[in-house]
C-alpha cells in the first residue's frame, strides 16, 4: 500500500501542485516568522551584551521635584562629588558621567534626519588619554569646546557633513550652529534604530539637558579581576535617594528580556496571520483529496475487491497526504528562511539598523515548520481518506463516482445551521454587552465562521440561483451551463468559496472598523480644532518657551495658544490641567461652554469640564483651594464649565497664573490661527519665525487630520498585506477546483463541443463558473465581515465620541470586483485546457 500511495502521488503531480503550494506558503510564513524573530533576538542580545561588556556598574538618577523630610529639594542629578566618591572605591578604574536628551540634525534639504524619538544628544566624556571608550572616531575627534559637536557616521553621511563644516542642531530650544569636530561609530541603540547621535562638550550638554555640574547617569568600569557585585555593594550607599545602580550583567539581561517581549508581539501577530493562511489552506487540501478520491473510485474499489481492507485504503490516502505534507514543508521551510532574510533586509530600507549576526535556524523553527505542514495536511486529508475507505468493491464494476448521500448533506446542513445560530446569538449578545462584550463576540465569531463554512454548500444554490437569469440573458448557453456547473457539486463549490469567504470576512471586518474609526477621529479633529496650524516637536517632547514667543511675534498671526501640560492639586486631589492663553484659546479650539464664560480665564479663575465638575460636586462660581507644583497655594474661582474635549485636559488655567510656579514648562503643542487662513505664505512665515528648525513640525489642518487618522490607514495596509497570503491560497483553491472539474468533465465537454459549442464559448463557460464561485465566496465574506464589524463597533462606541458605523461601499465594491477578477485569472489555465480538449478523445474518456 505504501508503494501504491507513492506511485499515486507521482502519477498526480500536476493535480497535487496546488496543495503543495498552499502548504508551502503557510509553512514559509510560520518558519520565516520564527527564524526572523530568533535572528533579530540573537543579534540584539549580542549587541546588548557587547555594549555592557566593560560596564561593571551603571547608575541612573531620577530627579524629583518633591521636597525631602528636611524641606529641601533633592539635587537634580548625580553631582561631581558623588562621582568622585564612587571613583575612590577600591578596584574602580573609571567613572563616566552622562547627560542626554533630544538633538535633531538637518539634512541638505533642511529636513530632520531620523524619526524624532530616536534622535539623541549626549556629552563627550574623554578620559586621561583624550578618548571616550563608548565611541570610535573614524575622522576628527570629540568636541572640546562649546561651539563643537561630533556626529555618528550614518548621520554625517545622510547630512553630507564633513569635519570642520557647520552643522545646524536643534534641541528643545532654537536652532544653533556648531562646527563638526569629528565623526564616530557606535553601538548606541538609538542610532541602530535609524536615529542620530550628537556629542556635545560636557558643560554644553549639562546646560541643555539638566543643570550645570550634574549628570543623569554614570558608568563605572572596574580593574581586571574585580567583582561587579562587590563594587555595586560599595556604590549603593553613596547614591542619593532618587538614584539606583545595577551591574552591567543585570542591565544586559534586563535589556535582553525587554527585546524578547517586544519581539514576541511581532512574533504572535505574524504567527496569527500564518494560522489564518493555513486555516484557509485546509479547505484547498481537503478539496483536492476529495476530488482525487472521487476520480479514483474505480481504482480504490478495485483495491478493495482484490483484498485491501478499509484501514489499508484509508492508510493509503493518508500516506499520500504525508508525502505531500513532507515535501511541501521542506520547500516551505527553505522559502521561510528566504522570507526571514528578506524581512531583515526590509528593516534596513525603513531606516532601522539590524546588528550583524548569523541567521538563527533553531530546532524549534524546524520542528514547527514540519509539524505544522504535515499535521495540517493530514487533518485536511482525513475526511477524504475516510470516504475512500467506505467505497464498496462493487463500485469497481461501475463508472459512477462516489456521491454524497442525502443523509450526509442533511446532517451537515443541520449542524451548520445550529452553529451559525449559536454564533450569531453570541455576536449579538456581545454587542449588547458594550465594552465588556469583546470576548463574547470572539466566541460568537468563531462559531459563526465554522457554521457558515459547514452551511456554505446549502447557501450556494439559492445565492447562485439569483444571478442565473442574468447569466442566461448576457451569455446565453455558456452562462446557463456555468451557473449549473457552479451548483452541480455544492460540496466542492462550498469548499472553494469558503477559502475566499474567510479571507474577505477578515478584510471586510477590518476595513469597516478602520474606516469608521478613521472618520470618527477625522470628525473629532475637524469639529474641535479651529486653528489653521498646530506646532509640535518632532521628538514628541515639549516646545521651548522661545518657540511660543517666536510664534506670537510672527507676521500675520491672529491667535496663539499653547496647550501646556501641567497639574494642580485641587481640594487635595491631583488634577491634570492645560495652561492656555485666555482669549486666544476660544479662537483656536472649539470649546463648548456649558456655564459661565471662558473669558474669566484672564483673571484668577479656572475652567473645568462639566463631567469632572459634576463628579467632584463643583459648579460655576465655586471657589476652590489649589496647590501649584512649587507647593504654593491659592484660592481660585471656577469661572466656567465646558463640554469634555479630547484636545485639552479636564481643567483649563491661564499660562500667566501657572507660569511663575513651573521651573520648566512642558508644552507639547501650540495652536496658531493666521490672518487669511492656511496658505503657503503663512506657513512659511511660521517656519521662518521658528528659525527654520528641522525638529519643529508646522502642521496645517489636513496634516493634523492625517496625523490622527494616518495610524489607522497604516495599520489597515499592514493587515491587507499580511492577509494577502490567505487570499493567494484562496485563489489557488479556485484554480484547483476548476482544473479538477475540467478533468472529470472531459466527456461532457467533448459532447458539448460535438454538438456545436465552440472553443470561445467553452472558455467563457469555465471563466463564468470561476467568477460565480469567487463572487459567491466574496459576498458571504463581506456579509459576515460587516456583521462582525458592527458588533465590535458597539463595544467601543462609548469610548469614541461621534462614533457612527460607516459602510465603505467603494472598498466593498472593489473587493467584489477583485473577487471576480480572481475568478477570471484563476480560470485562464483550466479554460484553455478545456478548450483544447480533443473532441473524440474526450467523448471516449470515462
From TrEMBL:
Signal peptide: none
Transmembrane residue ranges: 269-294, 317-341, 361-383, 415-433, 439-459, 498-521, 718-743, 770-792, 812-831
Membrane association type: Multi-pass membrane protein
Keyword set, alphabetical order: Cell membrane, Membrane, Transmembrane, Transmembrane helix
A matching Pfam family: FtsX
Domain ABC3 transporter permease C-terminal residues, every copy: 272-393, 722-838
UniProt name for this protein: ABC transporter
Domain MacB-like periplasmic core: 17-237, 493-673
Superkingdom of this protein's organism: Bacteria
Compartments, as annotated in UniProt: Cell membrane
Gene Ontology MF annotations: transmembrane transporter activity
Primary location class: membrane
One cellular component (GO) term of this entry: plasma membrane
PANTHER family xref list: ABC TRANSPORTER PERMEASE YTRF (PTHR30572:SF4), MEMBRANE COMPONENT OF TRANSPORTER-RELATED (PTHR30572)
Family per similarity comment: Belongs to the ABC-4 integral membrane protein family.
InterPro entries tied to this protein: ABC3_permease_C (IPR003838), MacB_PCD (IPR025857), Macrolide_Exporter_MacB (IPR050250)
Amino acid at each position: 500500500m505504501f508503494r501504491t500511495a507513492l506511485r499515486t502521488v507521482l502519477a498526480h503531480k500536476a493535480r497535487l501542485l496546488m496543495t503543495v503550494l498552499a502548504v508551502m506558503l503557510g509553512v514559509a510564513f510560520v518558519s520565516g516568522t520564527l527564524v526572523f524573530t530568533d535572528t533579530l533576538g540573537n543579534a540584539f542580545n549580542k549587541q546588548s551584551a557587547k555594549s555592557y561588556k566593560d560596564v561593571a556598574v551603571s547608575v541612573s538618577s531620577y530627579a524629583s521635584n518633591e521636597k525631602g523630610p528636611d524641606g529641601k529639594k533633592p539635587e537634580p542629578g548625580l553631582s561631581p562629588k558623588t562621582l568622585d566618591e564612587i571613583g575612590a572605591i577600591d578596584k574602580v578604574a573609571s567613572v563616566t558621567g552622562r547627560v542626554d536628551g533630544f538633538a535633531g540634525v538637518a539634512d541638505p534639504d533642511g529636513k530632520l534626519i531620523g524619526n524624532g524619538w530616536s534622535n539623541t544628544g549626549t556629552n563627550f566624556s574623554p578620559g586621561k588619554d583624550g578618548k571616550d571608550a563608548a565611541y570610535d572616531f573614524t575622522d576628527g575627534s570629540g568636541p572640546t569646546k562649546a561651539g563643537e559637536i561630533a556626529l555618528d557616521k550614518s548621520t554625517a553621511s545622510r547630512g553630507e557633513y564633513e569635519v570642520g563644516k557647520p552643522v545646524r542642531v536643534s534641541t528643545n530650544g532654537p536652532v544653533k550652529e556648531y562646527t563638526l569636530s569629528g565623526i564616530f561609530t557606535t553601538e548606541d541603540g538609538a542610532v541602530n534604530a535609524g536615529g542620530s547621535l550628537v556629542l556635545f562638550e560636557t558643560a554644553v550638554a549639562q546646560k541643555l539637558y539638566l543643570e550645570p555640574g550634574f549628570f543623569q547617569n554614570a558608568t563605572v568600569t572596574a580593574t581586571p579581576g574585580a567583582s561587579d557585585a562587590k563594587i555595586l555593594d560599595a556604590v549603593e550607599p553613596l547614591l542619593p535617594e532618587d538614584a539606583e545602580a545595577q551591574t552591567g550583567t543585570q542591565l544586559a539581561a534586563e535589556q535582553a528580556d525587554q527585546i524578547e517581549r517586544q519581539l514576541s508581539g511581532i512574533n504572535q501577530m505574524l504567527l496569527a496571520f500564518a494560522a489564518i493562511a493555513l486555516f484557509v489552506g485546509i479547505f484547498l487540501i481537503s478539496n483536492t483529496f476529495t476530488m482525487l478520491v472521487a476520480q479514483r473510485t474505480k481504482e480504490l474499489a478495485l483495491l478493495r475487491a482484490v483484498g485491501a481492507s478499509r484501514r489499508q485504503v484509508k492508510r493509503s490516502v493518508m500516506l499520500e497526504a504525508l508525502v505531500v505534507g513532507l515535501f511541501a514543508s521542506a520547500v516551505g521551510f527553505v522559502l521561510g528562511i528566504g522570507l526571514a532574510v528578506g524581512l531583515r533586509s526590509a528593516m534596513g530600507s525603513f531606516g532601522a539598523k539590524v546588528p550583524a549576526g548569523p541567521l538563527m535556524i533553531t530546532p524549534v523553527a524546524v520542528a514547527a515548520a514540519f509539524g505544522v505542514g504535515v499535521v495540517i495536511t493530514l487533518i485536511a486529508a482525513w475526511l477524504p481518506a475516510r470516504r475512500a475507505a467506505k467505497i464498496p468493491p462493487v463500485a469497481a464494476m461501475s463508472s459512477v463516482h462516489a456521491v454524497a448521500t442525502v443523509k450526509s448533506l442533511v446532517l451537515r446542513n443541520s449542524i451548520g445551521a445550529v452553529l451559525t445560530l449559536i454564533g450569531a446569538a453570541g455576536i449579538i449578545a456581545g454587542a449588547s454587552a458594550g465594552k465588556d462584550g469583546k470576548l463574547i463576540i470572539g466566541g460568537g465569531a468563531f462559531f459563526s465562521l465554522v457554521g457558515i463554512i459547514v452551511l456554505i454548500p446549502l447557501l450556494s444554490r439559492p445565492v447562485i440561483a439569483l444571478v442565473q437569469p442574468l447569466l442566461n440573458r448576457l451569455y446565453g448557453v455558456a452562462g446557463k451551463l456555468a451557473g449549473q456547473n457552479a451548483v452541480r457539486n455544492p460540496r466542492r463549490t462550498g469548499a472553494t468559496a469558503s477559502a475566499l469567504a474567510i479571507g474577505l470576512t477578515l478584510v471586510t471586518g477590518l476595513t469597516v472598523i478602520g474606516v469608521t474609526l478613521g472618520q470618527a477621529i477625522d470628525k473629532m479633529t475637524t469639529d474641535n480644532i479651529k486653528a489653521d496650524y498646530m506646532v509640535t516637536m518632532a521628538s514628541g517632547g515639549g516646545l521651548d518657551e522661545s518657540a511660543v514667543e517666536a510664534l506670537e511675534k510672527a507676521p500675520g498671526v491672529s491667535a496663539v495658544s499653547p496647550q501646556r501640560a501641567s497639574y494642580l492639586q485641587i481640594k487635595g486631589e491631583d488634577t491634570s490641567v492645560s495652561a492656555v492663553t485666555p482669549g486666544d484659546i476660544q479662537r483656536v479650539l472649539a470649546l463648548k461652554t456649558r456655564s459661565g464664560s471662558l473669558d474669566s480665564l484672564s483673571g484668577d479663575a479656572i475652567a473645568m469640564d462639566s463631567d469632572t465638575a459634576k463628579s467632584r460636586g463643583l459648579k460655576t462660581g465655586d471657589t476652590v483651594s489649589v496647590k501649584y507644583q512649587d507647593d504654593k497655594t491659592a484660592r481660585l474661582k471656577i469661572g466656567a464649565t465646558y463640554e469634555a474635549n479630547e484636545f485639552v485636559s479636564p481643567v483649563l488655567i491661564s499660562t500667566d497664573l501657572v507660569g511663575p510656579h513651573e521651573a520648566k514648562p512642558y508644552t507639547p503643542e501650540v495652536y496658531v490661527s493666521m490672518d487669511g487662513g492656511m496658505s503657503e505664505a503663512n506657513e512659511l512665515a511660521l517656519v521662518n519665525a521658528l528659525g527654520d528648525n528641522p525638529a519643529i513640525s508646522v502642521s496645517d489642518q489636513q496634516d493634523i487630520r492625517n496625523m490622527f487618522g494616518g495610524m489607522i490607514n497604516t495599520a489597515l495596509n499592514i493587515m491587507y498585506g499580511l492577509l494577502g497570503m490567505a487570499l493567494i491560497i484562496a485563489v489557488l483553491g479556485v484554480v484547483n477546483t476548476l482544473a479538477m472539474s475540467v478533468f472529470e468533465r472531459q466527456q461532457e465537454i467533448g459532447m458539448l463541443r460535438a454538438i456545436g459549442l465552440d472553443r470561445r464559448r467553452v472558455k467563457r463557460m469555465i471563466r463564468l463558473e470561476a467568477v460565480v464561485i469567487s463572487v459567491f465566496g466574496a459576498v458571504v465574506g463581506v456579509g459576515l465581515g460587516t456583521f462582525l464589524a458592527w458588533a465590535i463597533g458597539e463595544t467601543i462606541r462609548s469610548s469614541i465620541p461621534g462614533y457612527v458605523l460607516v459602510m465603505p461601499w467603494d472598498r466593498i465594491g472593489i473587493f467584489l470586483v477583485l473577487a471576480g477578477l480572481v475568478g477570471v485569472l484563476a480560470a485562464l489555465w483550466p479554460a484553455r485546457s478545456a478548450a483544447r480538449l480533443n473532441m473524440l478523445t474526450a467523448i471516449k474518456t470515462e
